Amino acid sequence: MQYIVMQLFPDMPELLSREDDVVYTPADVAADVVAHFEPYGRVLDPCRGGGVFTDLMSGAEWCEIRDGRDFFEWREPVDWIVSNPPYSIFSKFMRHSMTVARNIVYVIPINKVYNSDRTMREIWEWGGVPEIYVIGPGATLKFPIGFCIGAVHFQRGFRGSTQVTFRDPIAA
Length: 172
Fold this sequence. Notes:
Elements: H1 2-8, H2 27-37, E1 43-45, H3 52-56, E2 61-62, E3 78-83, H4 90-100, E4 101-109, H5 111-114, H6 117-126, E5 127-137, E6 148-156, E7 163-166
Parallel strand pairs: 1-2, 1-3, 3-4, 5-7
Antiparallel strand pairs: 4-6, 5-6
Helix pairs in contact: 4-6
């Protein structure tokens, strides 16, 4: 597999860095995220994978490196990006996303937003985080990690407070 990836994408060694970067979002989670944020206008799924987000967003455009559509070559502006990006290159994905999108919703381990001073500063200079939609523990979602997973909404020019919403409220 690594040989094939290296032959197809010799300029992207990061594709070989983490086998667990291929994490498929469960269909019910994708449906809930799309219903919660209601993306509109021009929408892009930059790492389509199995197409669970793209299939839910009528007219959405997509990229998928394994299908020969490299997100890092995408230059056209979009209103929304909705996806589950590769975690090992999240900062690189985020930087490029901020060059093309007004709104970004990434299903990620929530700590990805806060674990790098550089990434945090870049996000807050660009805009901010209007909402973190907490989905639940990664292990419960069959993700290869146990960290808390959320759909984090980033927005260009946002200067308000961050709202935290829980997908499945904890019973009182």
